[in-house]
Design a protein that fits this description.
With about 425 residues, the protein is an alpha/beta fold. Helices cover about 40% and strands about 10% of the residues. The chain has an eight-stranded parallel β-barrel with strand order 1-2-3-4-6-8-9-12, surrounded by four helices. The protein has a two-stranded antiparallel ribbon with strand order 5-7. Strands 10-11 form a two-stranded antiparallel ribbon. Helix 2 crosses helix 10, helix 5 runs parallel beside helix 6 and helix 9 packs across helix 10. The structure holds L-rhamnitol and zinc ion.
């Protein structure tokens, strides 16, 4: 029953159910349509990039699987992104990594400039997308030691500081040209596999490097700096220089954004609980919504309890203007376009569910210490007909409802992806 008439009929009934709880579904959809999700370019080619500074993915992150059809060029990646975006309701953003630069001949990462991203920026403009950006401090011979900005080798450290500096200029140019601030994120892989002696010196060097990178003040209407913390990585199990405490402190002191990646914490820790804590002290944050399974495995985001909890915290806390929602997963074992679509649609669904909550009513119940009713209501809300609102929303936004998007991916796979050999 994915025909227009059925979807409208089902929606009308759902609308009434929500109205009984005092929830206006039209308002929820209107709000939802104003939320931009930042789609990460790196799902399309397994974090390969095009500068080919190094053949294999480095930095303690890993894309597993050999599903055919990955994008081999920037043009292919853009074509894939266009297909992906046509299957996702709303207006979104592109999150690009520095190693996706398009240069004529070799340009070192410390010599990159906005001109190497002209095609990306023009494409974003043509497609009505804002852009976000990331320095690429991995998959590079100068990152092979496992240390970049915290390296004790002054030449190596300098090189990466310069990379950080040029990335901010590139981000600012993107923000300026597209008329929306470019969140420029910094994540480094630095750390030790085994128990270190000195946990202090690398952190002091990292602080110094960051101070050098962020020395030049930038117009916040063009550029927003973010720093991303992590607990451990493959090959940095015992010690990560840029830990949560480190970057939280740095972000507060220097008024940068903090990036919380949902795969970067101990498996029993949840980002949903951190949002209201860190936003008590920070103006804005960036999320890297991912799905870790046992480790930071970067599985495709699904509509999990934690995803719903994250969306609830953003909406209940009235943080939509202060939380930048980016995605960060890379699955090479399934159709890559489907991976993007599934992950992004799940994020949007979670936000819709959160926007359909009778928040005021729930708050009053809680303030009255009525915990029986709170538990009962939270459970009942889980089976409210949000799916009917979702299908209607998709149709209204002119993208395929329910599972019908998959037909289009199958056609694209046959016509485009299968021919990439
Ligand atoms: C790695 C970080 C980082 C990367 C991307 C490619 O653990 O999450 O954000 O995944 O920048
Ligand atoms: Zn991340």
């Amino acid at each position: 029953m994915t025909g227009m008439k059925d979807i409208e009929k089902t929606y009308e009934l759902a609308k009434q159910r929500y109205a009984e709880l005092g929830v206006d579904t039209e308002k929820a959809m209107e709000k939802l349509s104003s939320i931009a999700i930042s789609l990460h370019c790196w799902q399309g080619d397994d974090v390969g990039g095009f500068d080919k500074a190094q053949e294999t993915l480095g930095g303690g992150i890993m894309a597993t699987g050999a599903y055919p059809g990955k994008a081999r060029t920037a043009d292919e990646l853009r074509t894939d992104l266009e297909k992906t975006l046509s299957l996702i309701p709303g207006k979104h953003r592109l999150n690009l990594h520095a190693m996706y630069a398009e240069t004529k001949g070799k340009v070192e990462r410390n010599e990159l400039s906005p001109e190497h991203f002209t095609t990306w920026i023009d494409w974003a403009k043509a497609n009505g997308l804002g852009m976000d950006f990331n320095g690429s401090f991995f998959s590079h011979p100068k990152a092979e030691s496992g240390f970049t900005l915290s390296s004790a080798d002054e030449q190596v450290r300098r090189f990466w500081v310069e990379h950080g500096i040029v990335c901010r200029k590139i981000g600012a140019a993107m923000g300026k040209q597209l008329g929306t601030p470019c969140v420029t994120n910094l994540w480094i892989p630095d750390g030790y596999k085994d128990v270190p002696v000195d946990r202090k010196a690398p952190r002091q060097r990292l602080k110094q490097s960051l101070d050098e990178i962020f020395a030049q003040p930038m117009d916040r209407s063009c550029l927003l700096d973010a720093v991303e913390c992590k607990l451990f990585g493959i090959g940095s199990e015992s010690y990560v220089v840029g830990s949560h405490e480190f970057y939280l402190g740095y972000a507060i002191e220097n008024k940068t954004l903090l990036c919380l990646d949902t795969g970067h914490f101990h498996p029993t820790e949840v980002v949903s609980d951190k949002i209201s804590s860190v936003l008590t002290f920070l103006d804005e944050i960036l999320l890297h919504v991912s799905r870790g399974i046992r480790w930071d495995s970067d599985h495709v985001v699904i509509l999990s309890d934690e995803l719903c909890a994250i969306a609830q915290q953003i909406v209940r806390g009235d943080y939509l203007q202060r939380v930048h929602i980016g995605l960060d997963f890379f699955d090479a074992s399934i159709n890559r376009i489907a991976a993007w679509v599934i992950g992004t649609r799940s994020m949007i669904k979670a936000l819709l569910i959160a926007l359909l909550e009778p928040v005021q009513m729930l708050r009053e119940i809680e303030l009255a210490d009525n915990y029986t009713e709170r538990l009962a209501m939270l459970e009942e809300l889980k089976t409210m007909p949000f799916g009917a609102v979702w299908d209607y929303y998709c149709t209204k936004m002119e993208v395929p409802p329910a599972q019908t998007w998959l037909d289009e991916v199958k056609v694209y796979e046959k016509d485009v992806l299968a021919k990439r050999r």
